[in-house]
């Protein structure tokens, strides 16, 4: 653990806005630090890309795009096997900041409880038996009845990376209402998605990710990939998530389209940053 301790001591004071140079240094340090836990690359919970590299990239997005602070209280919905949590251990203040991760796959939660929490006690992980046709088909909790096990206005920063990309539209609305309930005043929601706009649907540049040939399901707003199980990859009509966030009393502060659709961007999926304020 000596390298982890040394990394912590090297961090500058966070009394002022975090600058780009520091963020770049931190991201590189996360990738290089061989003492940070990493799961078996063949784990079904890891997802596409290199575990450490992808996590480092998102840490940069959380800080730059979402305004994440070291003293933030973070909720990670769909925390998986810790791809977001591991890099956050190097940024959140152990005395002031905190992290809570929830997931319906017990294997990922167990790994995080064994590999992360003993070293970083401000990081906690909780299994939630939410039913999902792919990831937890025998789950006891209906996604339409979801109730997050946290008090109102508890979190400054809520993460939903690759969550709504696996949910039907009705459940997305339930999740967003719960996020609005637990998000503190001035807090931020960081959410990734596949927005099927005209460019994504028609693929005029022929550069869209070939795995994501979305086709509209029924009358919308969902788009599925015909070759995959319905919830393996879910896209939504452009405007659906904007409206769903507003209905959940959340305002969209930033919407950034990703390069999965074949256009230049510094991130793959589409990103929304939202916070309290919207329809009541």
List the helices and strands and how they pair.
Elements: H1 2-10, H2 20-32, H3 51-64, E1 73-77, H4 85-88, E2 98-103, H5 106-115, E3 123-127, E4 155-160, H6 169-182, E5 183-193, E6 195-196, H7 198-202, E7 215-216, E8 222-224, E9 234-237, H8 240-247, E10 250-256, E11 270-276
Parallel strand pairs: 1-2, 1-4, 2-3, 4-5, 6-9
Antiparallel strand pairs: 5-11, 7-8, 8-9, 10-11
Helix pairs in contact: 2-3
Question: How would you sum up this structure, described in words?
Answer:
The chain has 280 residues and is of the alpha/beta class. The protein is 28% helix and 21% strand. The protein has helices at 2-10, 20-32, 51-64, 85-88, 106-115, 169-182, 198-202, 240-247, and strands spanning 73-77, 98-103, 123-127, 155-160, 183-193, 195-196, 215-216, 222-224, 234-237, 250-256, 270-276. A hairpin with a 5-residue loop joins strand 7 (215-216) and strand 8. Helix 2 packs antiparallel against helix 3 (51-64). Mean pLDDT is 91; it is low at 1-16.
Summarize the structure.
By secondary structure, the chain is α/β, with parallel strands linked by helices. It is built from 8 helices and 11 strands.
Write a concise keyword list for the protein shown above:
single chain, alpha/beta, 280 residues, seven-stranded mixed sheet, four-stranded mixed sheet, 8 helices
The portion of residues assigned to helices is 25-40%
Strand order across the largest sheet: 3-2-1-4-5-11-10
Taking all Cα atoms into account, the compactness measure Rg is 18 Å
Ends apart, CA distance between termini: 49 Å
Beta-strand portion reads: 15-25%
User: How many extended strands?
Assistant: 11
Name the poorly predicted regions: 1-16
Query: What is the averaged pLDDT score?
Result: 91
**Classification by helices and strands:** alpha/beta
Helix and strand run: HHHEHEHEEHEEHEEEHEE
């Amino acid at each position: 653990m000596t390298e982890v301790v040394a990394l912590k001591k090297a961090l500058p004071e966070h009394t002022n806005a975090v600058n780009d140079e520091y963020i770049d240094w931190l991201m590189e340090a996360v990738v290089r630090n061989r003492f940070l836990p990493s799961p078996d690359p063949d784990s079904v919970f890891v997802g596409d890309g290199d575990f450490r590299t992808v996590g480092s990239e998102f840490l940069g997005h959380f800080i730059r795009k979402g305004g994440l602070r070291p003293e933030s209280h973070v909720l990670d919905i769909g925390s998986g096997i810790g791809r977001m949590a591991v890099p956050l251990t190097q940024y959140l203040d152990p005395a002031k900041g905190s992290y809570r991760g929830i997931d319906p796959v017990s294997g990922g939660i167990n790994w995080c409880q064994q590999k992360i929490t003993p070293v970083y006690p401000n990081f906690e992980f909780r299994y939630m038996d939410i039913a999902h046709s792919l990831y937890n088909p025998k789950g006891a909790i209906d996604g339409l009845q979801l109730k997050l096990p946290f008090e109102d206005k508890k979190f400054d920063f809520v993460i939903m990376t690759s969550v709504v990309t696996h949910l039907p539209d009705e459940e997305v609305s339930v999740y967003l209402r719960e996020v609005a309930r637990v998000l503190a005043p001035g807090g931020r929601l960081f959410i990734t998605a596949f927005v099927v706009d005209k460019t994504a649907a028609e693929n005029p540049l022929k550069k869209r990710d070939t795995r994501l040939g979305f086709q509209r399901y029924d009358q919308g707003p969902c788009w599925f990939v015909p070759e995959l199980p319905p919830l393996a990859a879910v896209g939504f009509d452009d405007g659906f998530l904007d409206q769903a966030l507003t209905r959940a009393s959340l305002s969209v502060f930033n919407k950034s389209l990703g390069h999965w659709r074949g256009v230049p961007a510094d991130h793959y999926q589409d990103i929304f940053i939202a916070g309290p304020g919207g329809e009541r």
